[in-house]
Amino acid sequence: MRKLLIANFLFLISFTVRAHPGIGIVKDSKGNIYYTDLAKVWKISLDGNKTVVVNNVHTHELYMDEYDNLYGEHLWYNGESKDTWGHYAWCLKNTGGLVKEINPAKGFLTNYSFVRDSLGNMYWVERFTTSKIMKKTKNDEIIKIAEGKFGFIGWLTCAKNGTLYFTESNKLRRLTPDERSESYRMETLAKNIGSKSTEFSMMGRNYDSYGIWTDAAGNVYLAMIDSKKVIRIGANGNTQTILTSNSLWTICCGIFDNNGNMWVLENSVSNEVRARKITKEELAGNKTPGNFTIKPHLLITVFTIAVIVLLILGTKTILNKRKQKLLHIAI
Amino acid sequence: MLYILSFLLSWLSGMLIIFITAFFSYDQFSMIDIVSFATMTFAGVLILFLLIYLIVLKVINNMIAGTKQFIYFPIIFSLLANLPAYFLIWKSMGDLYGSSEATLFTLSFLTSGFVFGLFWAWKNKMLSQAQRQLPKGE
């Protein structure tokens, strides 16, 4: 029975748990948007035209440097018999050429990241019992900038000036570089940002914050993948829901274009990926589309009650017929 | 037909308890949660129904009679017949799901067993009423 239950669970997981969605959405200096669908990298031009710019790459993250060179990786699994992973990092040059930044190798990228500041310094998280946040300078010097027994650390994001943002369980943290020294100052920008969800949900953890991005005014935006919304955390720590998605699409990350419109990277229940533009007017009006489909839970509860009532009535009818039949036979 | 109805009613009642409890336990309960709970409880109740409930029902139908069935049937099915399910829920906690999901599974199976017991006590009462109405000697 246990095997049956476990087999059922695995069968179920294969259908219901969505893959680890990407957060790669970036813009170039002209305002074109690039995003990953975990198989290709797409470009949305200023006129709305959509084209594939890099094919056959499984990359969760993207980075665009100041010269409009686009960076990403390709990650692959070598099958259950080998049970190993492979990777390489690529760069789509502004001239159109695609080159390998890091040659194919076993395992995952190490001491390399797509989270970078305007100077090209890289930042990443080493998640262990004691987690570390690391920095690699342009001179290839690797520095530990924070260390501690954190809760689960999500995606890391970096503003142009080198300020880092990350979520730790249900808190949003900020690491600000000290201009006078090499050290960083850590602050908690907001607490209780996450909402509690079940362990069946996407990431198998208790809090649902995912991609992080910032705007020019210093606000921080968090994609909440289970509650299907985007929250904005102001510099004073005030939290506000600014956008919700419907039950079929989940916002995973976002970016602001040169005109102040927000582009969100969304994953569907069937693992499709799209980038959607939320105009600054919509944002200002706190438009929350598709609210009526947000609560499948309520609809299914009502439906279940209705089916139970029907089953009870059906049973009563069958029992009455049997009763009548018994009496009829006796007479 | 009544067996299928009793199975469906038991399973759906268990699911309903999960849905209602989830309103108070979680901030959101997505389609993934709904499908996960539905599939796992469906498989669990189906296995219990085929391997335990039907056998126990056959035994206690002959042992317990009259209105006592309304007390003993729900207790026996929700507590004793479900013991293997409770054991597996407890054993898999931490590996397959967390404590809050385990609580929901336990509540679901408790309800399923309770409803299954009530269903058959009700069915027996309805048919025994008919038998009492039969002319003497039938």
Largest sheet of chain B: none
Secondary-structure class of chain B = mainly alpha
Radius of gyration of chain A: 25 Å
* Element order of chain A: H for helix, E for strand: HEEEEEEEEEEEEEEEEEEEEEEEHH
- Morphology call of chain A: elongated
Secondary structure: elements and pairs:
The complex is a heterodimer of chains A (about 325) and B (about 140).
Chain A (H helix, E strand, L loop, with lengths): L1 H15 L8 E3 L5 E4 L4 E4 L5 E5 L8 E2 L5 E8 L7 E8 L5 E9 L8 E2 L5 E5 L4 E6 L5 E7 L4 E6 L5 E5 L2 E7 L6 E7 L18 E6 L5 E5 L4 E5 L5 E6 L4 E8 L5 E7 L4 E6 L1 H5 L11 H35 L1
Antiparallel strand pairs in A: 1-2, 2-3, 3-4, 5-6, 6-7, 7-8, 9-10, 10-11, 11-12, 13-14, 14-15, 15-16, 17-18, 18-19, 19-20, 21-22, 22-23
Chain B lengths: L1 H24 L5 H33 L5 H12 L2 H10 L6 H35 L5
Helix pairs in contact in B: 1-2, 1-5, 2-5, 3-5, 4-5
Q: What is the structure about, briefly put?
A:
The complex is a heterodimer of chains A (331) and B (138). With 331 residues, chain A is α+β, with helices and mostly antiparallel strands. Chain A contains three helices and 23 strands.
Structure description:
The complex is a heterodimer of chains A (331) and B (138). Chain A is of the alpha+beta class and 331 residues long. Chain A contains three helices and 23 strands. The N terminus of chain A is likely disordered. With 138 residues, chain B is an all-alpha fold. In chain B, helix 1 crosses helix 2, helix 1 runs antiparallel to helix 5 and helix 3 runs antiparallel to helix 5. Chain B starts with a helix and ends in a 5-residue tail after the last helix. The model of chain B has no long low-confidence stretch (mean pLDDT 85). Classes of the chains: A alpha+beta (331), B mainly alpha (138).
